[in-house]
Amino acid sequence: MSGFDFDRVIDRRGGDSLKWNKYAGRDVLPLWVADMDFSAPPPIIAALERRVAQGCFGYAQEWPSLYEAVLDNLRREYGWQVEADWLVWLPGLVTGLNVACRAVDGDVLTATPVYPPFLSAPRLSGRQLSTAALCQADGRWGWDFAALEAALTPGCRLLLLCHPHNPVGRAWDESELNQVVAFCKRHDLIVCSDEIHCGLLLDEHRQHLPLAMLDAAIARRSITLMAPSKTWNIPGLGCAFAVIPDAALRRRFGGAMRGIVPHVNVLGLAATEAAYRDCDDWRRALLGVLRGNRDRVEAAIAGLPGLAMSHVEATYLAWIDARGLGVADPAAFFEAAGVGLSSGVDFGLAGWVRLNFGCPSATLAAALERMTAALAGGRTLDA
Predict the structure, then answer these.
(1) Mean pLDDT value across residues 51-63
(2) pLDDT given at position 370
(3) Residue 83 has pLDDT above 80, yes or no
(4) Could you report the per-residue pLDDT of 195-248, keeping only the tens digit for each?
(5) pLDDT at 381 (0 to 100)
(6) Do residues 178 and 171 make contact, with C-beta atoms less than 8 angstroms apart?
(7) If you write DSSP's letter for every residue of 117-157 in order, what string do you get?
(8) All residues at 6 or more sequence positions from 90 whose CB lies less than 8 Å from its CB, including other chains
């Protein structure tokens, strides 16, 4: 037994939860936006209580033990030797995506389907975005490097990489990452790697490999974005960081932040230190819960007509092919059945939905029962 209660159902209705308030006043279980319905780790809560007790909430300057906690974690988990001055603190990972697009002068390339800010950040930054579709082979998502080459524009200077991948759930392996590295070198691209789900590899034999570790050349052209928010369920505390080994690129990134990116809030920083220093036992217990939830979702989807999904290697997000339902809007169909999912349209792929299984087993069971009942009820052609 882990000693952590992941079965407790926390009533988040009627409060400040974006996830639950979307369906306020309706009997809809929200399995959409990527925050989990679990209490944060006890050491994080204790750290926040200590910081709040001080009573003064002025602008924060990052402190030595915070750096030490983050750098020690990167060394311990991945063998990645990161220098303190490589870190650039951010109030959120999405901020980092937008800053990267502003810092690198040129067009942007990414692969779809993908986390929606990958599609919006270039536009909001005044950049031209090109996309190439990921492909499926034997039910597993992978790269189509021929499509990536074809999508490349002469003015492209930045590749946005999602690693591990949201929404398809892939943990890219070393061979795949080496092909990404070769592509970036061949076309003189900077790569911004979103690695926010790096602590959530579900397959026990797998280990996350930061892209910037592959060789010194790719490290010099890399912006790695990380945060404790997904792994330790603290997205509302708004703290992330970029790892940028190259000093010139780091200056460009910092210059793009100037005047538009605020200081990281003091509570987010306090929680971040506790997460990276004191909460690995909670994370390991969480991974066991998420593996069980993933297996339950995969088994359920395999038995439902019109639905299919590939194995989720990382994240707590299931990417479900609902094209076989024959409905125009699968997310709306399941919402009518009482389950709130993310629409694939937002990720660049219509006909799919994303299901967040980071919730207590009772919540997940109820949601899967509703989905099963909706399909058994002959409603697949009604929405």
Answers:
(1) 97
(2) 98
(3) yes
(4) 999 999 999 999 999 999 999 999 999 999 999 999 999 999 999 999 999 999
(5) 37
(6) no
(7) HHHHHHHHTT--EEEEE-EEETTEEE--HHHHHHH--TTEE
(8) 96, 99, 225, 227, 239, 240, 241, 242, 257, 261, 264
In 28-151, where do the E strands start and end? Answer: 29-30, 87-90, 107-112, 129-133, 135-137, 140-142
Q: Do residues 305 and 335 share a domain?
A: yes
For the chain, how big is the Rg over CA atoms in Å? 21
Q: Residue 175, exposed/middle/buried by CB under 10 A (0-12, 13-18, 19+)?
A: exposed
Yes or no: say if 374 and 63 are a contact pair by the CB < 8 Å rule: no
Cβ–Cβ < 8 Å for 89, 239: yes
Give the Cα separation of 269 and 60 in Å (integer).
8
Q: How many angstroms from the chain centroid is the CA of residue 380? A: 30
pLDDT of 1 strictly over 50 = no
Domain that holds residue 32: 18-41+280-375
Which of 278, 293, 323 is a domain's end point?
278
Residue ranges of E strands in 36-100: 87-90
pLDDT in tens, 113-127: 999 999 999 999 999
* Helical axes 266-278 vs 64-78, angle rounded to 10°: 40
Tokens 């986390």 sit on residue: 115
Tokens of 285: 């217990």
- Look up the CATH number of the domain holding residue 110: 3.40.640.10
The percentage of residues in the chain with a pLDDT greater than 70, rounded to a whole number, is 98
Cis peptide before 167 (omega within 30 of 0): yes
Q: Exposed, middle or buried: residue 23 (CB in 10 Å: 0-12, 13-18, 19+)?
A: middle
In sign, the C-alpha dihedral spanning 106, 111, 114, 116 is positive
Whether residue 383 is predicted with pLDDT greater than 90 in this model: the reply is no
Residue 251 located in a structural domain: yes
> Are residues 309 and 231 part of one domain?
no
Into how many domains does the chain fold? 2
Residue 9 has pLDDT above 60, yes or no: yes
Whether the model pTM is above 0.90: yes
CA distance 310 to 17: 30
Distance CA 156, CA 142 (A): 22
Cβ(106)–Cβ(155) under 8 Å? yes
